[in-house]
């Protein structure tokens, strides 16, 4: 017995004693910190603020006044045919009886070249109705599309489109 203790009954002695004690304290500290307070991870709330603005501009409507022809025809075909016949004959005032001034000007801006102009048909599904005239037998040449609108049960030419080949 040395120092009043039995041999092997006391704490170990020697150079490894300090290292073991440090490791034990370190393990104890880590255990306590792992069991201790952790930052709370409760529900999070994200707030997003969106702002919008609307700008509105009021533009006054422009009004266009169209003078209707003096003597609209009884059918779309009759109005279109009278316009084309008047153009072929060089009778601008007669064309104006069934067509607006703009339509007459559009057609008479193209000089009649002497070719045969044949009726190719008229649409009927929706307005404006369109009657087409072109080279005889569907041959190559200028195509004339005549737009027609109703007024009080009669028909007038509202526009003319000329497509030259």
General description of the model:
It contains four helices and four strands; from the N terminus they run ααααββββ. It is α+β, with helices and mostly antiparallel strands. It has a domain of 88 residues: Roll (Nuclear Transport Factor 2, Chain: A), CATH 3.10.450. A four-stranded antiparallel beta sheet has the order 1-2-3-4. The longest helix is centred in the N-terminal third of the chain and has 19 residues. The N terminus is likely disordered.
The CATH architecture of the domain at 76-163: Roll
Considering DSSP H and I runs of 4 or more, what fraction of the residues is helical?
A: 25-40%
Q: Unreliable stretches, pLDDT < 50, 5 or more residues?
A: 1-12
Count of extended strands: 4
Discrete helix count: 4
CATH fold descriptor of the domain at 76-163: Nuclear Transport Factor 2, Chain: A
Strand order of the largest sheet: 1-2-3-4
On the 0 to 100 scale, the average pLDDT is 78
Bin the strand percentage.
Answer: 15-25%
Which CATH C-level class of the domain at 76-163 is it? Alpha Beta
**What is the C-alpha radius of gyration, as a whole number of Å?**
50 Å
SS-based structural class? alpha+beta
Query: Tell me, what's the shape?
Result: extended
Give the oligomeric state: single chain
């Amino acid at each position: 017995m040395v120092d009043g203790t039995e041999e092997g009954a006391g704490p170990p002695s020697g150079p490894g004693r300090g290292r073991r004690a440090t490791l034990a304290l370190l393990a104890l500290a880590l255990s306590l910190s792992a069991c201790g307070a952790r930052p709370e991870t409760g529900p999070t709330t994200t707030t997003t603020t969106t702002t919008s603005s609307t700008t509105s501009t009021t533009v006054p409507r422009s009004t266009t006044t169209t003078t209707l022809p003096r003597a609209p025809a009884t059918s779309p075909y009759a109005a279109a045919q009278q316009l084309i016949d008047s153009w072929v004959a060089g009778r601008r005032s007669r064309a104006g009886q069934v067509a607006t001034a703009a339509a007459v000007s559009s057609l008479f801006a193209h000089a009649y070249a002497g070719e045969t102009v044949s009726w190719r048909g008229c649409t009927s599904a929706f307005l404006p109705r369109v009657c087409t005239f072109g080279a005889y037998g569907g041959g190559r040449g200028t195509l004339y599309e005549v737009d027609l609108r109703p007024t009080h049960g009669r028909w007038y030419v509202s526009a003319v489109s000329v497509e030259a080949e």
